[in-house]
Amino acid sequence: MKKLVVIVMMLVAGTAGAADKPGAEILGRWVGGTWPLEGKMVDSDFSKAATLKGLSTCNWSPEHVFVVCDEIVYVNGEPERNLGIYSYDKKSDTYHYVEITPEGRRPALNELVISADGNRREYRGSSEVKGEKVQFRTINEYRSSDSIEWWSEYSKDQGQHWTKMGGGSEKRER
Questions:
Q1: CB neighbour list of residue 42: distance below 8 Å, 6 or more residues apart
Q2: DSSP secondary structure letters along 131-159
Q3: Is residue 158 within 8 Å of residue 137, measured between CB atoms?
Q4: What residue ranges do the domains of the chain occupy?
């Protein structure tokens, strides 16, 4: 009987945990209106000082599978365009973000971790630079349904210490 109670408790706990995780619907927080961006980058090993201004417009794909964001960021007044595509893989319970550019650079695929409450998104990537593995992340934290604070960082020691490269905000206009 004890074994049955333990198994039932594990099943209930597992179901409750799964219910707490957001699914594809959480990607829809970007949809609706436009998202003007303002920010600054600083001089670091992997960034140069710059002023950023931009605009994102996001919508669901026709089949409601992807969120597609048309983005323009002005880096010191020079425009950079990209198309950001968000997706959710239900089987592996993972989120993905890929970014493509009109210039045809290799698409950038990032691991995307979204908190259970949906208020924090962490875009993760890594590169080998001069024989050294460097981790990068950009964190978006919702301050309200229409306001995000963001910052970008890098780590040379497998995430033990992070160095800020820049940050800013986005405030939705409806």
A1: 49, 164, 165, 166
A2: TEEEEEEEEEEEEETTEEEEEEEEESSTT
A3: no
A4: 2-171
The residue that leads in pLDDT, 7 or 132, is: 132
CA 145 to CA 11: how far, in whole Å?
33
Interior angle at CA 102, CA 80 and CA 59, nearest 5: 80
> pLDDT tens digit string along 138-172?
999 999 999 999 999 999 999 999 999 999 999 99
Global pTM?
0.84
Q: What is the pLDDT of residues 38-91, one digit of tens each?
A: 999 999 999 999 999 999 999 999 999 999 999 999 999 999 999 999 999 999
Tokens for 49, please give them.
Answer: 């000082």
Q: CATH assignment of 2-171?
A: 2.40.128.20
Q: Which of 168, 143, 144 is nearest to 54 (CA)?
A: 168
